[in-house]
């Protein structure tokens, strides 16, 4: 009951936003540019077969592969930097600088390199998502209590034991924070890659409908993209809550 009450303000705000959107779209009588929510849902139902069975799987494949690579790459780099100050000094500025380059400007280059295959979109997704995972995990590994570390080493623990039993647990909340940011960004990365060069996918479908001036059909795949981001975020949150029960009990 408490959770339901906690969600009530957000639900009311969303309902008010949708009502205003519906009224404004119908009042301006320009539904081909700004379709009302009811029109988007109607178009989503009308296009459910190509969207759900052709374009949604293509986008999901990009997101899942990109996230898997980002998690492995991001955590690996974070661990490497945490155990080697030299590596940290060499890689950290490069990692920060990589986010200063507009990814949308690099996406056409990836299309030239990889063609319209899935890998051009995966690379875009990885470039967007690995950063929050890397930085948050590294910060988590650095946040371990120095007092506990000194105590463990005084009691005969080696670097491996300190890393596994102290640094890894202390970094998990930061790691999950990075992953929660990354899952939402992965949807954006996949959509950007599909917009600039693809043969299937929700982003590709939205771009194709834009050339036909079908506003409702442009918004329909965007609704699915938003739903993917929300579902992935909830999944990560559930995994986080189950694996960090000790934090709540503490």
H/E order of the elements?
HHHHHHHHHHH
Total of DSSP H or I helical runs spanning 4+ residues: 11
Fraction of residues in helix: over 70%
Radius of gyration: 22 Å
Largest sheet: none
Low-confidence stretches: none
Task: Report the average pLDDT across residues.
Answer: 84
| Percent of sequence in beta strands | under 5%
Globally, the shape reads globular
Number of strands: 0
Subcellular location: Cell membrane
Keywords: Cell membrane, Membrane, Transmembrane, Transmembrane helix, Transport
Protein name: ABC transporter permease
Family: Belongs to the binding-protein-dependent transport system permease family.
Would you give an account of this structure?
- With 250 residues, the chain is mostly helical.
- Helices cover 86% and strands 0% of the residues.
- The protein has a domain at 66-145 and 173-242.
- The longest helix is centred in the C-terminal third of the chain and has 38 residues, at 159-196.
- It has helices at 2-28, 37-46, 48-83, 85-98, 103-114, 118-142, 146-154, 159-196, 202-211, 215-243, 245-249.
- The mean pLDDT is 84.
- It is built from eleven helices and no strands.
- It starts with a helix and ends with a helix.
- Helix 3 packs antiparallel against helix 4 (85-98).
- It is a multi-pass membrane protein.
- Its main location: membrane.
- The chain crosses the membrane at residues 58-83, 90-116, 122-141, 185-205, 217-239.
- Keywords: Cell membrane, Membrane, Transmembrane, Transmembrane helix, Transport.
- It is found in: Cell membrane.
């Amino acid at each position: 009951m408490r959770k339901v009450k906690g969600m009530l303000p957000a639900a009311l705000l969303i309902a008010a936003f949708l009502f205003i959107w519906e009224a404004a779209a119908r009042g301006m009588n320009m539904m081909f540019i700004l379709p009302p929510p009811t029109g988007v849902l109607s178009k989503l139902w009308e296009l459910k077969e190509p969207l759900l069975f052709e374009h949604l799987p293509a986008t999901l494949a990009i997101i899942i592969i990109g996230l898997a690579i980002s998690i492995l790459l991001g955590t690996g780099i974070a661990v490497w930097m945490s155990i080697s100050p030299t590596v940290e000094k060499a890689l950290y500025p490069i990692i920060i600088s990589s986010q200063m380059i507009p990814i949308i400007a690099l996406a056409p280059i990836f299309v030239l390199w990889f063609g319209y295959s899935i890998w051009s979109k995966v690379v875009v997704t990885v470039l967007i998502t690995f950063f929050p995972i890397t930085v948050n995990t590294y910060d988590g590994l650095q946040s371990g209590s120095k007092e506990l570390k000194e105590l463990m080493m005084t009691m005969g623990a080696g670097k491996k034991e300190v890393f596994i039993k102290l640094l890894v647990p202390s970094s998990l909340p930061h790691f999950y924070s990075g992953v929660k940011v990354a899952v939402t960004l992965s949807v954006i990365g996949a959509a950007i890659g599909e917009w600039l060069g693809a043969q299937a996918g929700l982003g590709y479908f939205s771009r194709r409908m834009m050339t036909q001036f079908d506003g409702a059909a442009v918004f329909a795949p965007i609704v699915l993209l938003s739903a993917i981001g929300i579902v992935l975020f909830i999944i990560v949150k559930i995994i986080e809550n189950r694996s960090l029960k000790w934090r709540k009990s503490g």
